[in-house]
Write a structure and sequence with these properties.
By secondary structure, this protein is an alpha/beta fold. It has one domain (7-269): TIM Barrel, CATH 3.20.20.70. The chain is built from nine helices and 14 strands. The protein starts with 6 loop residues before the first strand and ends in a 6-residue tail after the last helix. The mean pLDDT is 96.
């Protein structure tokens, strides 16, 4: 009997715009509605990048505080996972500002990556240690984002040093330019590289979103979808909403008899609050 399926919905991202898909939320009201609809469809975690009303990404703690509070006012049980990735070019201090609101959960990026062209998403070993220490100090649960196998190996070294601790929950982000592709062999390689007792979720970028989701569902893992990762519901057809992407995963889960985890069940499965 496999565990219930945890669905994360990445509603906004830092780079995707309304020009790509008009359903991408910018304003606080749009963020709240997107989060609420994703929750009603089955998402228990909302992965959040803050945006200003004009769509500009920000790591400003005050903007995050306002968005998170508004989402929690509407959906008190939801887990809101903030991004410490920010946008390419932001400093370590700028990216970590959001942690000052003491979120329940945040992402911890575990390595540097080419993002295509001249864009480099920089996460030095000292960056990773800085973020992990700050999250440990503030009692924030982290989800370790790994774009390739070397990122998992970095976490293993930091676990041995006692810097990364608590329940180990990973996110494989596959299909990004410069990172690992999202074929089944890539997924299996990463899954089999994890330490015993850890859990994982999979975020397939673009065309990999639903094929990777299915691999994770059938192997007992968890899934992230959302307009940050993929703007289409099927090839050439724009998704009408984040909710529509979540609903497609719920339908897929039924094929493998995976029940959907509630936020309360998700907290128990991820041992949140036990660090």
């Amino acid at each position: 009997m496999m565990d219930k399926l945890i669905i994360t919905c990445a509603i906004s991202g830092a780079e995707v715009t309304k020009e790509h898909n008009p359903a991408v939320p910018y304003t606080i009201d749009e963020m709240v509605e997107a989060a609420h609809q994703a929750y009603l469809a089955g998402a228990s975690i909302i992965h959040l990048h803050a945006r200003y009303d004009d769509g500009k990404p920000t790591q400003n703690k005050d903007r995050y505080r306002e968005i998170v509070k508004s989402i929690k006012d509407k959906c008190p049980e939801l887990i809101v996972q903030v991004s410490t990735g920010g946008a390419v070019g932001m400093s370590r201090e700028e990216r970590s500002d959001v942690l000052n609101i003491k979120p329940e959960m945040a992402t911890l990026d575990c390595g540097t990556l080419n993002f295509g062209g001249d864009e480099i998403f920089i996460n030095t070993e000292n960056d990773i240690i800085y973020f992990a220490n700050k999250m440990n100090e503030l009692g924030v649960m982290y989800e370790m984002e790994c774009f390739e196998k070397g990122h998992i190996d970095t976490t293993l070294r930091l676990i041995k040093k006692g810097i990364i601790k608590g329940h180990l929950h990973y996110s494989f982000v596959l299909g990004v330019n410069g990172g690992m592709t999202g074929e089944e062999r890539d997924f299996i390689f990463l899954k089999e590289s994890l330490p015993a007792g850890s859990t994982y979720s999979v975020a397939g970028i673009g065309r990999y979103e639903f094929t990777l989701a299915e691999h994770s569902i059938k192997h007992g893992g968890h899934v992230r979808v959302g307009l940050e990762d993929n703007i289409y519901i099927e090839k050439g057809v724009l998704a009408k909403s984040n909710r529509e992407l979540v609903e497609k995963i719920v339908t897929m889960a039924k094929k493998y008899n995976r029940e959907i985890a509630t936020p309360k069940e998700t907290r128990q499965m991820l041992k949140m609050g036990e660090k």
